[in-house]
Amino acid sequence: MKYSFVVILAYFILGALLGRLGIINKLYLYSEPLSSNWGWVKFVNNTDSSTVSSDGPILIQQNGKWTSYAIVPKDGNFVLSKTVISRRDTLRCYVDEPKQSFWFLLQNNLVVQPSTYAMPTKLLAISDIEGNFWGFKAILKGANVIDDDLNWTFGNGHLVLAGDFFDRGLNVTECLWLIYKLETEAEKNGGKVHFLLGNHEVMNLKGAFKYVRNKYWHNADTLQLDYEKWYAKNTELGKWLRTKNSVEKIGDFLFAHGGINRKLAKKRYSLAQINDNTRKSIDEALTENEAEQNPFTGIDSPVWYRGIVQQRETQQEIEQTLKQFNATKMIVGHTIVNEIKYLYNQKVIALDLDHKTNAENGKMYALWFENERFFVIDHHGNQTTLGNK
Fold first, then answer.
1. Would the pTM count as exceeding 0.85?
2. 3-state helix vs strand vs coil in the chain, percent to 5
3. Residue 111 included in any domain
4. Which one of 145, 168, 260, 318 has the lowest number of neighbouring Cβ atoms within 10 Å?
5. DSSP β-ladder status, 122-126 and 158-161
6. CATH code at 349?
7. Structural domain span for residue 38
């Protein structure tokens, strides 16, 4: 018993050291005897009780073929699905919380998105869903963006998703595939889905998994497919995410997850240059210090910066940034506020709410734009004017 304690203690100390050095992402400990099929517990997140549940499809291109990995429900249990598919196949995504499936086709071409767009007649914007499928569906349906079957009903409207759909929640894969599906449907109807990269998208693409829930480590083990491979460059979702921007201008509104800080604006990059450099930085091998200081994916980059919502910039600095990009407003998420609101004399709109708590209370809110006016819309479709604040 004494020696067992020493071995376990040494195991934890070594694991903590290797994790600190970035050599490993997770440390496993059996919950039951080695003969058990119980599975694994992820040491660095041992307060997280989430475990194996439905997931996928994860689509990986190997040796010229596409393989679909999924965990799907059957007769009250879960079964593994690993099949070779054609890109012409109709694919199914099952969502466990509403116990609902939707079907989609793979896009013919994954192309880098433009950085600027004309002003639409109506627009819905939300950020930081973080794998909360119930809340995401509720607000989209309440705003008449989708119907009960998760089909696009927004016509030529624009849906802006300002980053952080990864981590913390338990339906990340399902949220991503729904966005992927809605992109195609929106295009066919003259509308548009804008999916901007947030810091959590960048973290997962770069292999930083601090906030990944245990469910995904368990599912990865069950599928015998390392989580590190789920969003690699040879996966459909990985390729798709690498076509996305960190900043976009829609009409004369700038959208970003964190915001464009005054220092970056002064360097006179165009939006396209910011986006190109963001995508390039995702797959660069950087030291910890280089990654933190990187102007496109580091701590003060458009995907991470909190200084605007925390009002660490002056009114003049905000207006100078907007002038640099010929914009009238900047709309950002990332930093939680108590309500969607104006900042800086209506030059900035802060989007990020505590969606987890709101959803648990049966509420969801987003930003609505129509007839040249901004509103807050809830999951019932009720609108209130975004007032002077």
1. yes
2. 30, 25, 45
3. no
4. 168
5. parallel
6. 3.60.21.10
7. 2-45
